[in-house]
Amino acid sequence: MPAPLPDWFVELAASLRQWGRWGDDDQLGTLNLIDDAAVRRGAAAVKHGRRRSLAMRFDQSSPQVGSIPGRINPLRTMVAINTPYLGDPANFCASDDIVTMGLQASTHWDALAHVSYGGVMWNGVPASAVTAEGGATKLGIHRVRTLTSRGVLLDIARARGEERLAPGHGITPGDLDAAVERAATTLQPGDVVLVRTGNAGLMAERKRTEYTTGEQPGLTTACCAWFNERDIAAVATDTVAFEVYPGEDDAVLFPVHLLDLVEIGLTQGQNFDLEDLAADCADDGVYTFLLEASPIPFTGGLGAPVNPVAVK
Amino acid sequence: MPAPLPDWFVELAASLRQWGRWGDDDQLGTLNLIDDAAVRRGAAAVKHGRRRSLAMRFDQSSPQVGSIPGRINPLRTMVAINTPYLGDPANFCASDDIVTMGLQASTHWDALAHVSYGGVMWNGVPASAVTAEGGATKLGIHRVRTLTSRGVLLDIARARGEERLAPGHGITPGDLDAAVERAATTLQPGDVVLVRTGNAGLMAERKRTEYTTGEQPGLTTACCAWFNERDIAAVATDTVAFEVYPGEDDAVLFPVHLLDLVEIGLTQGQNFDLEDLAADCADDGVYTFLLEASPIPFTGGLGAPVNPVAVK
Amino acid sequence: MPAPLPDWFVELAASLRQWGRWGDDDQLGTLNLIDDAAVRRGAAAVKHGRRRSLAMRFDQSSPQVGSIPGRINPLRTMVAINTPYLGDPANFCASDDIVTMGLQASTHWDALAHVSYGGVMWNGVPASAVTAEGGATKLGIHRVRTLTSRGVLLDIARARGEERLAPGHGITPGDLDAAVERAATTLQPGDVVLVRTGNAGLMAERKRTEYTTGEQPGLTTACCAWFNERDIAAVATDTVAFEVYPGEDDAVLFPVHLLDLVEIGLTQGQNFDLEDLAADCADDGVYTFLLEASPIPFTGGLGAPVNPVAVK
Amino acid sequence: MPAPLPDWFVELAASLRQWGRWGDDDQLGTLNLIDDAAVRRGAAAVKHGRRRSLAMRFDQSSPQVGSIPGRINPLRTMVAINTPYLGDPANFCASDDIVTMGLQASTHWDALAHVSYGGVMWNGVPASAVTAEGGATKLGIHRVRTLTSRGVLLDIARARGEERLAPGHGITPGDLDAAVERAATTLQPGDVVLVRTGNAGLMAERKRTEYTTGEQPGLTTACCAWFNERDIAAVATDTVAFEVYPGEDDAVLFPVHLLDLVEIGLTQGQNFDLEDLAADCADDGVYTFLLEASPIPFTGGLGAPVNPVAVK
């Protein structure tokens, strides 16, 4: 007989459940909160024209170390190198390549279909909607045609006066509040929030195993309500797990994933490199920007790579 | 003995050559023209907040039909389907997938390293900088950290009163001028231009073979100077070949690629789906927008998939 | 309500069912019939030392044309070309490559887990033993450590005086009997039978679409009993479908697969190129040989590529 | 200026060079030595009918640990799981999968084109015959249609009274002689020799890093002449590197590869699991057998997976 989920989780899940909010056939969850006004607000945040990519590397030194079965780092290989199409290198020559990769290997958004529990996904869609033939036949990443809004950086590490959050540090609503205060802005419905732990710095320091395995700083379940109350459209972090690991209770694994993706319908992003952006924000004191982070719309994808760009 | 390139091409190439314009070590070509002002101009083009993805499908029905060796359409396959990590489906379950694809199979930007002739690429970089081990060790797509600017749609088809340009129609500077006039804007340095032939409609009509093979409408070599004179940062089309096919002279294959990528350093995009955007522009008469189209930065990539988004 | 299977099929299936014959935990089916004596008989068939590969091409011109979703032809790409490991091409240089392919794209054996009906596979194993995480967790191709025995070619085409069987020709027990007579041998338990239609010749003639799609010559359901009565260990054909297509009754798809793989536990091979071997056998009148055709043992594979070799 | 190769190596290479032995256009090297008589001798070695696969695992626990760039372990993923082709699971259902892998990731033969030095490969073929478009356009693994002969196990470890050779132990001609004496046979032209260090046991003990990296036992350059003098057709080992590592002289990397593949044209196999076979041979005192080890003939492959089978 399976172990029951702990009462606290069941109750929290019930209190957060947003099923039906955007209709029975909804595929987008909180991304519906990105309305035209939110996008205009994002565009209005562009004051200077500076833009920063938040993408980590896409190659064999991407974050994966084999701990998640099958989620391989991008392997790019050559199919043509300066091929002389007319047989003469003095004329047109072309080079071409292919890639094989886990869709969630590097910087990515999770599809809402990425996780399930009790046989259901977001909005009560049966978990069986994920199939070998079609992948996410519901709630797939290709449903997210665009993901553009105002972005807000919540630099938890700097707000706590730390270079980087300690492994296993669970981010609390208090941490979020402090970072908002530091950001000197008010979160608005449809905003996309980027939560910085400082962990991406580990990748830059080539401490990939430390970045990807073992204890991780990250969000706690109390933050789910915090984001939900503020009608945040999507949240991304600079970690591999998004949420704190180990979690708060051994009886439920990755509870933040379950609450965000299944109950709230909140799209999550991982492996966002927030180091340069955070330095920029610390420098000018402005923590808001236009965020353009539309995923590659792989049909049926359970997630997808993205090159997120913040424009200030 | 190899056939010499035709004189007209050699002279045109020499007249367009921009090598050294951004220094000996430049990796970006005309993308250098996207300065902060261009980005601010892009952001200022956002009036309403509407956004449109210009991505074609990323799956086995992407444009490739086998005519370009090795450039396979995205094949997404499953590595996990609702895997119960704790052994109990009542608790956390996750689904995960991988993809294998040609980097230029669907909507993409070419890297400047994509083509060469006479042993050189943009800025005189030796073609040998493309290697099996590292791909584009110079001029790779990962050098393009962001690609965000004001976008301008030049709807050649509508400007000519056609639903879709005829196969083999070569777009002329006159066509471009007419489309600019229709767009009622002035092109400015750092703008990204999207050139519509209407061909993406073939994909929607499931005429993939017609879209991908045989005669193609597209840009002619005279347009290279036109874009160069206007300091356009990048150009993308809704075709598989970018330029007209067959070309103007059998003695030189894909001359527009050679002039743009090798001589001018102009980044080219292909397989952009411009149908919805064009209908929108025709509707409100506004052909300018913020274009955010930063490629996935595969290290050493000869090209990369992108989900381009136009925001009006 | 699902359409019931036709009575004739249900009765035939029941009459052929061999479940439990090799125990409840069996993973090999009729491959158990290859005992040491069968292998000695195979070795004894080597008179001259001539050997022939029965492999079709493993590259982008392998049989697949896209009609079976996801079963892509082998794409081999480069990761290193004469890489000078010490930085000096005068010293050690190495070239290396990878491949992506459908396991059943070219010459292959099906795993017993490849098909199911009514929720079960061979020996009553639940179809749910095939998972996204592990593939064929039961009845996978890796269970077949070796596949070596006496081989017998049944050249149906030559026995019927035809260069190649007509598309849609259903091979009957009478056809098999005639080919055995031509082979002038007696089938024995544990033999592996190769059934020639002549279709591999289409691949040599570059008629891949004709080879892979549309009407196909092949085995009929009556042959299942014929092989079963003779305790044949495995059967392979020079076709993509193994069995005649379209089948005998629209109400049941690929009935030979279901009878062989699910009921009898008979391992099937496809895309064996029997042209050279058949010419050899026609030449010397000897249709028996050592057959060594052990698949690459991919863990959990639903099938696997093989380079089958006949030694006479 | 590149460092010159050491004199001893240059002299040894010259003394071993077999270029032209089988004509200017030869693609097979010493595999030409497998004549019909050798194959008959192999078949005659089958006394009992026992067969053993020498394949290591083909999955994510194959030998690679990332130390050889791009040579990834096999990743098998699902494209179909019990897909009901007629829409009804009571009727025909099929499961299908694909694989991505380094061709040399697990048990494999090197193609003669795998290595070069000084710009040449076996028989003086220019190294430039390996291309991004075609792979090994000369000396590719697909030229090896069959690889079947008498096999002889030289159990160096047991001959030295060791469970497993020490890391860094260089096998000498004396070691080979002792193992031949233990095998109580005479090597004959066209034989295929399997050299056991015992290292495959590390894989069984899940010591993959130890198996794949650091010091390795293996063959020394003096053994190249030893095999050459005896006209051995091919040699395989139960190690990742084939030869001892580090080698005898820092000035030349992997000298055995260069001598075998480039100078002698001797096909090399790696990652053969010889543990069961060696136990069998130790048990009955018989070290000869039929070896059938024909690689999957990937067109242009620099190597290929194989499921080698020894039949006694």
**CA gyration radius of chain A, whole angstroms:** 20 Å
* Helix fraction bin of chain A: 10-25%
Could you tell me the strand content of chain A as a percent range?
A: 15-25%
Secondary-structure class of chain A: alpha/beta
**Biggest interface between protein chains, with counts per chain?**
A-B, 97 and 96 residues
Number of strands of chain A: 16
Q: Tell me the series of helices and strands of chain A, N- to C-terminal.
A: HHEEEEEEEEHEHEHHEHEHEHEEE
Overall morphology of chain A? globular
Largest sheet of chain A: 9 strands, mixed
* Spatial strand arrangement across the major sheet of chain A: 1-16-14-8-10-12-13-4-15
- Oligomeric form: homotetramer
The low-confidence parts of chain A are none
Distance between the termini of chain A: 54 Å
Q: What integer is the average pLDDT of chain A?
A: 97
Total helical elements of chain A: 9
What is this entry, summarized?
4 copies of one chain form a homotetramer. Chain A is α/β, with parallel strands linked by helices and 312 residues long.
Using brief descriptors, characterize the structure shown.
two-stranded antiparallel ribbon; globular; homotetramer; 22% strand; alpha/beta; 312 residues
What does it look like?
- The structure is a homotetramer of 312-residue chains.
- Chain A is α/β, with parallel strands linked by helices and 312 residues long.
- Chain A has 9 helices and 16 strands.
- In chain A, strand 2 (75-84) and strand 3 (93-102) form a beta hairpin.
- The termini of chain A are far apart.
- The model of chain A has no long low-confidence stretch (mean pLDDT 97).
- At the C-D interface, helix 2, strand 1, strand 2, strand 3 and strand 5 of C face helix 2, strand 1, strand 2, strand 3 and strand 5 of D.
- Strand 3 of chain C pairs antiparallel with strand 5 of chain D, so a sheet runs across the interface.
